[in-house]
Amino acid sequence: xxxxxxxxxxxxxxxxxxxxxxxxxxxxxxxxxxxxxxxxxxxxxxxxxxxxxxxxxxxxxxxxxxxxxxxxxxxxxxxxxxxxxxxxxxxxxxxxxxxxxxxxxxxxxxxxxxxxxxxxxxxxxxxxxxxxxxxxxxxxxxxxxxxxxxxxxxxxx
Amino acid sequence: xxxxxxxxxxxxxxxxxxxxxxxxxxxxxxxxxxxxxxxxxxxxxxxxxxxxxxxxxxxxxxxxxxxxxxxxxxxxxxxxxxxxxxxxxxxxxxxxxxxxxxxxxxxxxxxxxxxxxxxxxxxxxxxxxxxxxxxxxxxxxxxxxxxxxxxxxxxxxxxxxxxxxxxxxxxxxxxxxxxxxxxxxxxxxxxxxxxxxxxxxxxxxxxxxxxxxxxxxxxxxxxxxxxxxxxxxxxxxxxxxxxxxxxxxxxxxxxxxxxxxxxxxxxxxxxxxxxxxxxxxxxxxxxxxxxxxxxxxxxxxxxxxxxxxxxxxxxxxxxxxxxxxxxxxxxxxxxxxxxxxxxxxxxxxxxxxxxxxxxxxxxxxxxxxxxxxxxxxxxxxxxxxxxxxxxxxxxxxxxxxxxxxxxxxxxxxxxxxxxxxxxxxxxxxxxxxxxxxxxxxxxxxxxxxxxxxxxxxxxxxxxxxxxxxxxxxxxxxxxxxxxxxxxxxxxxxxxxxxxxxxxxxxxxxxxxxxxxxxxxxxxxxxxxxxxxxxxxxxxxxxxxxxxxxxxxxxxxxxxxxxxxxxxxxxxxxxxxxxxxxxxxxxxxxxxxxxxxxxxxxxxxxxxxxxxxxxxxxxxxxxxxxxxxxxxxxxxxxxxxxxxxxxxxxxxxxxxxxxxxxxxxxxxxxxxxxxxxxxxxxxxxxxxxxxxxxxxxxxxxxxxxxxxxxxxxxxxxxxxxxxxxxxxxxxxxxxxxxxxxxxxxxxx
Amino acid sequence: xxxxxxxxxxxxxxxxxxxxxxxxxxxxxxxxxxxxxxxxxxxxxxxxxxxxxxxxxxxxxxxxxxxxxxxxxxxxxxxxxxxxxxxxxxxxxxxxxxxxxxxxxxxxxxxxxxxxxxxxxxxxxxxxxxxxxxxxxxxxxxxxxxxxxxxxxxxxxxxxxxxxxxxxxxxxxxxxxxxxxxxxxxxxxxxxxxxxxxxxxxxxxxxxxxxxxxxxxxxxxxxxxxxxxxxxxxxxxxxxxxxxxxxxxxxxxxxxxxxxxxxxxxxxxxxxxxxxxxxxxxxxxxxxxx
Lengths: 157, 747, 290
Fold this sequence. Notes:
The structure holds 3 protein chains of 3 kinds.
Chain A (H helix, E strand, L loop, with lengths): L3 E7 L2 E7 L5 H8 L18 E4 L2 E4 L12 E3 L12 H9 L8 H14 L5 H7 L10 H16 L1
Chain B lengths: L13 H6 L14 E6 L6 E7 L1 H4 L4 E6 L9 E2 L6 E2 L5 E2 L7 E5 L2 H10 L1 E6 L6 H5 L22 E9 L9 E9 L11 E7 L2 E6 L4 H12 L6 E4 L16 H11 L3 E4 L2 H5 L6 E10 L5 E11 L7 H9 L10 E9 L14 H19 L3 H8 L18 H12 L9 E11 L4 E10 L4 E5 L8 H13 L6 E4 L20 H25 L7 E3 L2 E4 L2 E4 H9 L5 E10 L14 E12 L6 E11 L6 H20 L31 E6 L16 H4 L1 H13 L10 H9 L5
Parallel strand pairs in B: 1-14, 12-13, 16-17, 20-21, 27-28
Antiparallel strand pairs in B: 1-7, 2-6, 2-8, 3-7, 4-5, 9-17, 10-15, 11-12, 11-14, 15-16, 18-26, 19-20, 19-25, 22-23, 23-24, 26-27
Helix pairs in contact in B: 5-6, 8-9, 9-17, 12-13, 13-14
Chain C lengths: L4 E3 L4 H11 L3 E4 L5 H7 L6 E4 L10 E4 L2 E5 L4 H6 L1 H6 L1 H7 L5 H4 L4 H7 L6 H7 L3 E6 L2 E6 L4 E3 L2 E2 L6 E8 L5 E8 L10 E8 L4 E6 L6 E5 L11 H11 L14 H24 L6
Parallel strand pairs in C: 1-3, 2-3
Antiparallel strand pairs in C: 4-5, 5-10, 6-7, 6-10, 8-9, 11-12, 12-13, 13-14
Helix pairs in contact in C: 5-8
């Protein structure tokens, strides 16, 4: 099988690897880099369980080829907490009850993190719109919104 | 971190979930593993003429192509109620997506390619995929009559008929009789984690990994099929990424286990979301309700005939039909009742347990019919419900557990939160409905708790934490009883080689059944601590009490750990407690056992309808449950609000769509819509009633399904008040509401 | 996903060469949010996927020059929705771009991809139609401008010639004040494919342009030059009659599972009337500057 060399920075670490053209960024993260935080669910860009940040923007990693990440900077859920310390948004998810089964949560946390980077003090409507690409079948939407609001509020203090 | 019951600490296991380090089945890597892919046919029913695997076998990296012919003969069949489901299709596929073969290869790419290259010659056969179609006397039989020996319904597509009742419906006079037929759509669990399975030869036995709710039940299924003793079947059940009933029973574990044994290598199968739609769903239903009322609003009788469309294999579906329809009259005083329910086989995805377990379907019909009666009688819908509601201790189902809560408090609280009776802006309406579900009828849970030398605790419990938060609740109980901080408690679950037996994780049972087993194990340790303290103090044990983590000695109290350390002595060691909780069955009971507790919920909705488009805007959604005692109030809210959102899914947007020959058209996330963060009600309020009157630890009750039960009827009631239109089919899509308004809309 | 070769031309010339030799075995990759779904479900099975994102001429850019706003083909929806110039002059396009999928999709989906995919439900198409956009296509024989109303043929098919790429989309800056809006119907409030997608533009001269998609094989532009729709004094019946005429070409598919033809037609009328009202309000409120 033909593979293509790519250089990609994942969670601050630069990686050189060869990827098959038909493998998505999600495949590359999970299978080649053993970063299983991003999850596989719908594979059509509807559920957001595979959300990661590529060059500053959230994307569904199931709808991007691994080769397209050549030269990109990628942040996955594994790249948020550093030195064993959770980020404020991760803590807030736990404090506000935003986590049940947890399968969608890596994607949710990444989207919430990016949302707060883009807008330090989002309104509830902005949060609901900005998080609509991350399905939660446990139905924690209200708690997740609360976690984002609480994090924004704590940042204001 | 204080873990006392009644507090809302951070979820135990939450850290792994927010960091991506929690390993679900698909995240676990085994060396040398083969990737499996199912081979299916794109039709609802077909006769398999031949299967040519040669091209698939030539794909580099392919190690195994398995068809029914490669399985032990006769092909093993399994199922929790009827052993009707073959490991792979035998001769005929009976639903869209039933596997006829499976391949295993070194890579996913190779497995996918080989699966495409398995050449199946088949003849499409006529399929039944609606209730009417299945009941047509000319309909093809879904199940071979030979699988149903001695069954006088074997020549029909009716798998079972259930009849429950009391009083004499025919002889009961009523001032008003309201009769309507209601339909409930076919919907699917859509857990964000698709089902995932792995199996690996393990010495002289097998190890299986599955995102399963009932690991012990699976262990037995596999032992039977493989002819192994239970001790040689090790089931690893990592926390499921959402289950909702869809992961209770074995699906493809037997296949994957047989593949692993044949290939002599580990094999993994991770379903696509599309494949999960073809693996598990909720039964659709058509329910005729005839309600007799006296003119004062009291019920004269309920006469319910519920047809549930189940799939091609029974799974647990017939139990769902029997148990779900059983409390069909609701939590009311009903002098005469007749409930008939049929499970009807069809060439569709096998239906199975799904949050609410058959109750939401009947609830939708009966609560909507009660609204129709209230309207005809000119009695307020809330008042009519309160008038008939069973009060604590009333045997509202004559032969079962009496009403076990102050349910009127729940209804009044919901009414208060929705502002029932206060003026509404124009174009708005309110609806209110109550829901009841029978809890577990049998149960058996064991727990082992180890109090280690430093006072930290390990709890071994066979419950699956699929998001409901059982791990946290069990840790809180142990923390409370043994005085360890919550972060000094570890809960080990999901490994049949390590954790003692638990019957199952379903029916909102775990807080009550496993909770009591853990409590029992902690009490076992407490009694040992008491003996230790007596020995150390040189006094009689009767002078000592141990509770909530402290040892009460004459004149003083000390933490358990202060007795434990000297008590264990220089060698250290630990104290081990064993606990057990049984709920025995009753063969004479219609459900095989009385109900351990009822889940009770009241949901109230305020809605506005765009009459031009049919859009429903939920202005406020109130859900109130009787929980006995909230061991963790935040988790109660999460479960209630989550169930409410899930209920909005089947109420407003979810349904399978079939083509004319029984293929599912909306497989996958693009055309099967579930609620997003933007689909929440403008306000979603949950509340709970706590009277510490449940059978679980500290007076708790199970509560994870209640808030889903009566969402549909409450929403439809609000739509009716807002617009005057009555709709008796779900989901209430904008198009359906629009059409009803166009047609004049009184059903 | 089936295997394929991946090509990432750095220049137009390289791209043309690949397209020429690969022919119909090639598929162009921009944002990939439609393509990758179809590669996975097997409805497209190219042998070569040509990633056009590194071609300088197609780069994501929005620039104002010579009386028009030029949007590079690979500009993503999020950038379009957030761009001040788009929001000032072409608000319906900003509104349409803001509802293409959820944010993760909008961060990848490109304007060029959206129109080349030629889905009848493409949300940006009606907006581009009412604004009279031009598609700048380039092939080895040179570039040409295709009026957007001549661009769409049917789902998946455009009037692009074999070997041609979309380089950019040009929007003429309005020469008079206008009011415009994009509206759509979906099955839920969260992101969804439109069962009707519609844009409306009213100018100060009283001409109303309505474009709509998801109600036929391709998005369609209809123009009311009578002034009736834009006339505040005209009664509802008169406006209704004009709308009926404008929507006469709508031919929603009976085979769709997303909405019935009757509902789509009915919603077209509802959205059309509402859109005219909003566009007029916006015009009255100052509108987009001319």
